[in-house]
Amino acid sequence: MEMKRFTRFGRNTFLWFLLVSLLPLAAVSATTYIYMRIHIKDMVSKELEYDASKYRDHVRTLINAWLWRTIDFSSDGFIRDAAQEIILGTGNPEIVGKLNTHLRVNKMSLHPAMFEVSILDKSGVVVASSNDVEVGKDLSAMDYFKKPFAYFEETGGIFAGDVKSQTFPGQPELVFSRLLKDKVYQSPIGVIMLKVKMDTLQDVIRPHAEAFTDGASEKLLAKAYITNRNGLLIADGPSPGHEMFGQEIDTNNVRQVLSTRVDSVGEYKNYLGNDVLGATLFIDEIAWAVTAERDAHEVFAPLRRLGYIFGGIAGGSLLLVFGLSLAISSNINRSIKELIYGTERVARGDLSYKTELRRKDELQTLSDSFNSMTNSLKASNEERERLFSIVERAKVEWEKTFDTIQDAIIACDSKHNITRANRAAAMLLGVKLEDLTATTCHSAMHHLSGFKQLADTAINGLRPSSGEVYAPNGDKTFLVSIYPTIDKNGKLQGAVQILHDITEIKQAEKELENRRIVAMTKLAELTEKRDPTTGHHLYRIRNYCRTRAEELRKQPRYSIVINDEFIKSLLEASMLHDIGKVGIPDHVLLKPGALSPEEFEIVKTHTVTGEEVLYFKMAREACRHHHERYDGKGYPDGLKGEDIPLSARIISLADTYDALASVRPYRKAMTHEQIRSIILQESGKQFHPDIVNAFINRESEFQALSMADV
What we know:
Beta-Lactamase, 54% helix, alpha+beta
């Protein structure tokens, strides 16, 4: 037989060698890559945080310089006095022109970035300005007017911020303001406001940003920019042009820093949509954020070079491992092929074949075990043939014994065809043995009452089933046991039926039952004779119980429980339910008047006493529980509802009805209508509603039975 060039085991071994060899290399590569990435990110993050802090320091220096200039202007004696005269209306008309000229000539000339200085009165109206056009404008809605008044106690009445420029459209402008106070009382009389070109802020950030991207000292800085408290871009570098100013910067890091006032460093997409590594710091003095970023692609460029190195190493290692794995697996493959060939020879019955390997490992052990196995199989085959002859002889002996068994034994297959039967089966069924094996189990035993139900239970449930079956004329009774036979997969193969004639045993049991009934009847009569006022009470109780049980049997919930056997046992139990009264003293049992509490406790013991002297279940239940109540207020156990046995529930109502309908020394017998009313009132209290309904449905029979001479 031609063998495959490479066995599955050899192929798997080869792939396993490759996997085990390359996994460590992959693990080292991945670990190194992750470590280097974390290291680079940490290093660059610290540099960016340092760069951003430098920008923040420069911005703070700029803001503070302009704030001090604003404070200096507000302290100018001429400005303060002139503004006070104008605002209070105590000066001459020329004072406005002089103040405007002073602001334009003496103050504006101090710095080229400053393009407007204005004085606002307490209502927010411009009363003097370096720009004559601004005089008379109402600026009361502007933050630089409102906040110096609002935060006078906290900030000393000083403000710094940015607004949209009216002078330079499309650009923001810096605004600084401070309260003006009168000379005597130091109370606010107005606000002095300076407007500065945003270029002064751009000039702070651009040179530093350009320095970081200049020549050999390149630090891969992609962007540095400043956003105001509303997240709008107000300065950046290297600058893409003023058309970007005022754009909303809605990146996570800027939004987070402005809302939490906590610095942030990490990877994200910037407002241009580029993946960057950046640091955003908060400027407390003016509630701005300054951001320094570097292009993530360039930051992690060394990792790509590292990947090329590892790729080369992995390629060389793969070739080396491939060669070694192929050599090792090929050697193993030759041995496996030899073992497979030997196994196929043995499978064809050649137990003399021996495998020949020259190895010093487990495969050699396997080869030796294989040769030892073939020797054992050869010896076992010879032993099996010897044992087979013994079994054949035993089979003959068994068949002789099988036919001598007195019980009928019938075996059938999964289709119910009889495959084997002994002589006792043929004699029992009255047919010839050869005719019996030519038919089916059902046709041979269909005349036996109850056989089909037993057979269905055993075959459908795949479990043994046994029970009594009867011949059609009733003169024979058999105990039948049916044992299904199944294969290892749980599938039905057939069944074995064993029939044992128990006719004589059943006759003896019937005779014993008759004697038992006579004894119980005499015992019940003994109870009645101790209390002659009850008359034929027990016999009426029995008839009442039969009537009610037959009525309940019509209801679906009781039809399964109440069968012929139940009714038979119920009638016997009803005769014995008061058997415990034999233990009640006469002076208590026969007392004509009402019982004392102590005497009533003695009477209640008859339920427990009766249970103790009886031996079959329903009589014991009825004796103990026939004084229980549906609502749980009865005795001796206080059972309620469905916990009270059904037999006791039925007997309880019958006992009560007959007691109320009977004459007692201490009262007259009640009429049927009176009793009916009491029973209906006690439905759901003393009696189960279903039992009461059964009574109502057959009450005419109750009435007739109560008046009959039993």
